[in-house]
Amino acid sequence: MRPHPLHRASARVLLLGAAALAAACDEPQPPATITLDFRGLVDGAPFACGQRYEGIGTTAAAFEPLDFRMYLHEFVILDSRGEEHLASPIDDDRWQRDPFVLVDFEDATGACATGSPSTHTSVELSNDEGAWPVGVAFSIGLPPEHNHLDAATAPAPLNEPGMWWSWRGGYKYVRADVQTDGGTPFYFHLGGTGCGGDVASGFACEYPNISRIELPELDTEREQITVDLARLYDGVDITAPTDFAVDSVPGCMAFPGDPECPKMFDAVGLAFESTSQGAGQAMFGTEVRE
Questions:
Q1: Secondary structure tally for the chain: helices H, strands E
Q2: What pLDDT is stored for residue 198 in this prediction?
Q3: Contact between 57 and 241 (Cβ < 8 Å)
Q4: Residue 89, helix vs strand vs coil
Q5: Beta-carbon neighbour count of residue 30 at 10 Å?
Q6: What is the rounded CA–CA span in Å between residue 35 and residue 136?
Q7: HSE on the CB side for 111, CA within 13 Å?
Q8: How far is CA 253 from the centre of its chain?
Q9: 10 Å Cβ neighbour count for 203?
Q10: What is the pLDDT of residues 153-196, one digit of tens each?
Q11: How many CA atoms lie within 13 A of 61 on its CB side?
């Protein structure tokens, strides 16, 4: 007896459905968590406290690191269509507290005396929306609602006194300090400026100085994010005498009129004394893990 045509059609549907299910099972599933590994560099060489680096800045000067830390937030995963998907830092009670993290390259050796022996260079993210990552983006800095807390009482990682300016000034989003061969320090402290307000009513900053970094091509399983400190000094002379009549300290503290700031802001993708992003950052890149 021949099978009824409807039976043959039903069998074909079942076979096609089984094939589709098998194919779906073979497809890789997006990871539930994603690790972003950061690697500090100085002109391509590994960053390390206690090391001397040459050929820095407009005069090819030499320096030794004093500090290198930064706050990051607003993490998103970029998929193959360029769409963004939320990713949240996984709380660890020390370096990460959703929605921000502290990345720390210094280890308190050599001349690095303002940080701690511990480092934090691997950021653990929850893949909240289940996207397959082909790139990432994040912002340097802190959300406004977290920027004006008291480091003496704030939870980790906002309890780092060396990363805090004041109630009005808020936190240092980036602290990158070096000293030249003559022992003179040269600072880069990035944070919100032109801030006003009080504890009761809150604070607001004329220049938030939040820089968004986009790395649209990053294989998170094979590659890491590089942060090259030398690029911060490409347009400045770290050995130039400081004119204290117009500049309070050697380097850039993000204060109005600071002569070293425009070029150093360029390196992190910001326009100085502006609410706009800059032409493009130079510090962050990617490389295959060793």
A1: 3, 20
A2: 85
A3: no
A4: strand
A5: 14
A6: 11
A7: 18
A8: 18
A9: 18
A10: 999 999 998 999 988 889 999 999 999 998 999 999 999 999 99
A11: 22
**Could you tell me the two tokens for 49?**
């406290």
- Copy the structure tokens of residue 135: 């790139």
Among candidates 117, 248, 227, which has minimal Cα distance to 185?
248
DSSP string, 270-288: B-TTSSSB-S--SSEEEEE
Task: Note whether 261 and 252 are within 8 A (CB).
Answer: yes
Which pLDDT score, from 0 to 100, does residue 46 have? 98
CA dist., res. 144 & res. 209, Å (int):
11
d(CA 209, CA 140): 9
Q: Give yes or no for a contact between 273 and 253, defined as CB atoms under 8 angstroms apart.
A: no
Cα(219)–Cα(199) distance, integer angstroms: 43
- Pick the residue with more confidence: 15 or 278? 278
Tally of residues, the chain: 290
Q: Does the N-terminal peptide bond of residue 99 adopt cis geometry, omega within 30 degrees of 0? A: yes
- How far apart are the C-alpha atoms of 221 and 256, rounded to whole Å? 42
Closest CA to 193 of 247, 160, 147, 250: 147
